[in-house]
TrEMBL record, chain A:
It comes from the Bacteria. Keywords: Amino-acid transport, ATP-binding, Cell membrane, Membrane, Nucleotide-binding, Transport. InterPro entries: AAA+_ATPase (IPR003593), ABC_ATPase_HisP-typ (IPR030679), ABC_transporter-like_ATP-bd (IPR003439), ABC_transporter-like_CS (IPR017871), MetN_ABC_transporter-like (IPR050086), P-loop_NTPase (IPR027417). This is Polar amino acid transport system ATP-binding protein. SUPFAM superfamilies: P-loop containing nucleoside triphosphate hydrolases.
Automatic annotation (TrEMBL), chain B:
The chain crosses the membrane at residues 16-41, 48-73, 85-102, 134-154, 186-206. The keyword Transport applies. Keywords: Amino-acid transport, Cell membrane, Membrane, Transmembrane, Transmembrane helix, Transport. One of its GO terms (cellular component) is ATP-binding cassette (ABC) transporter complex. This is Polar amino acid transport system permease protein. It is found in: Cell inner membrane; Cell membrane. Its main location: membrane. Residues 17-202 form the ABC transmembrane type-1 domain. The lineage of its organism: Bacteria, Pseudomonadati, Pseudomonadota, Alphaproteobacteria, Hyphomicrobiales. PANTHER family: L-CYSTINE TRANSPORT SYSTEM PERMEASE PROTEIN TCYL, MEMBRANE COMPONENT OF AMINO ACID ABC TRANSPORTER.
Amino acid sequence: MLAASSVEMRKVNKYYGKFQALKDIELSIPPGKVTCLIGPSGSGKSTLLRCINFLEEYDSGEVRIDGQLIGYDAPNKKMSGRRLREMRRSIGMVFQQFNLWPHMTARENVAEGLIRVRRISKADADRRASEALAKVGLADKSASHPSRLSGGQQQRVAIARAIAMEPKLMLFDEPTSALDPELVGEVLSVMRTLAGEGMTMVVVTHEMGFAAHVADQVGFMEKGELVSVDSPDRILHRPEDARIQSFLRTYHERNSF
Amino acid sequence: MEWSVLQQYGPSLLKGFGNTILCWALGTVFGMALGLVIALIQRYAPRWVTWIVQAYIEVIRGTPFLVQLFVLYYGGPLVGLRLDALPAGLLGLTIYGSPYFAEIFRSGFRAVPDGQIEAARAIGMSESDIVRRILLPLGLVSALPALVNFSIILTKETVILSIITVPELLYQVQRMSAETFRYVEANLVLALFFWGLVETISRVGLRLEARITKHLIERT
């Protein structure tokens, strides 16, 4: 069982100029649980996710990881870079575009954070990197550069890069959206394993199947609002809100043939 | 054509060529280093500092190298900066090249996808590690062709140093012409030397490029 973090978001607002990307977000993410965020593109799912590790700076409200405010020491007083980096160490993130560093091999990609951030010796870091790669099923690819890997393999390296840091919370920003359909499964299966180990996970996704089977709670977002957060069953199978019904209808239409 | 004069002037021409290479190599290295510093300042320094740096870039890029050299070499002593011809020439080349190199680095940095920087931030890497481990290596790859190209342009700017009596190749060629009236031969030698130098740089540049982009090219 891993040490798992909880996240509390209170009245979180985010503006891009005059455009309000997040409106009074209230969300509790319990430790060791999987929370999926669904909703149309541009609804603010990724923005919300990125506020959790402060890659996106929210303008007002609070985001707390295990009770600790991230990004600010007090309202309007940004936290120091050092403190922010310390907090980010225990938050892993996986991106839609993988964002591996192309000049490093798979193992180097995974070891980099261990060496630079955790200050672990290179030998140790290499060993842990190999372990992390083995865990995502890529032990044999550790010497390959990202350009030699398929999208699914690249994304699994990216997951290995995050879990090697032994995070207590993992953020997934549409981890399978850039993948060819036949490669989606291998990434989801790694994520399912992680969830099974008790990792706190927040997943922005269009994979309704994953949300239905793996998530403990599902949040539906539209136009910057977190419309509803509930069990997968209540959101995906018996939605009451008309906006969710309409979103799911469109989704099913697009995915049936 | 009268090539026998070359026997007499060969050594001084070679020496001049040596100085040309020295000025070019050091001017390029220092200019690149200064350019890199400028590019990093523009990326990370507070707004008012970047304005000052931008002003420097505009002034240097907006004035001829010849004028800059005159100001440095003949105007320098007026403010207590007394330099011999060669150091003055080197300093001049460094200053002249720096804003161009800075712009090349800036565009190289911009070519690094934001996501790769974010990935580093997300695992808690410090900005200085991000610069050293991610931004510089990747930015350099994108910047390399332009860096080589501008280094080649700089080879030919070295001839202007002859005006402040740096004993580089053009200086020696002019001396030979004046003493022997063999203008054509002298200038052909000049052209050949430069052609050889440029050809060498561009070949080395291509090899370097092939080597550092080896792992970056998508293979499917």
